[in-house]
Amino acid sequence: MQLPILAARSRLAFAGFALLGSAALAASAQITLPMWPVPATMQTLVVLLLGALGGSRLGLAAVALYLAEGAMGLPVFAGGAAGPAALMGPTAGFLLGFLPAAWLAGFARGGLLRQGGVLLAAHLLLFIPGVAWLAQFVGFEKAMMVGFVLFIPGTLVKTALALATLRAAAR
Q1: pLDDT per residue over 118-140, tens digit each?
Q2: Of 21, 83, 121, 165, which has the most beta carbons under 10 Å away?
C-alpha cells in the first residue's frame, strides 16, 4: 500500500519526492561496511522502501535521479565516489540493478507473504546485473562469492526491515 502523501498527483510533488528519495539513497550509500570490491551499504534497504512506499514509478524516478547525480559528479555513491568512472567500475552493475529492484518493490502490496516475497525478489533481482558486471573484473566464481554469497545475511535482514517498515507505514 502506498502512503497517501507519496501518491501525490502533481508533477512538482512527484519531482520533490523523487529528489528526497535520491537524497535518502545518497545518505544510505555513506553507511558502509568496507568490503572489497563491493562495500555493504544501506542502499538496498532504501531502494526497497522507495519502491514499496512510493510505488514503482516514484521508486524508479528516485533511483534514476540518484544515478544521474552521481554520473554528473556529485559524490553520492558509496564512499563519496562520483562521476562516469564510478558507473564503469566493479559496483556499476549493482547501481544499475537498483532500477529494476525499485520498480519491482513497487508491487509489494497485499498480505504479509506476498509483500515479503516481492521485496525479497526485488532485493535478489539487483544481484543479477551486479554479479554479471562484477564478473568482468574478478571472474564469475569470485563475483558470486564477493558479490552475492557474502551479502545473503544482510539481504535477509534488510528485506525484513523493509517489510516491517512497509507494514508499519500501512497502519
Answers
A1: 999 999 999 999 999 999 999 99
A2: 21
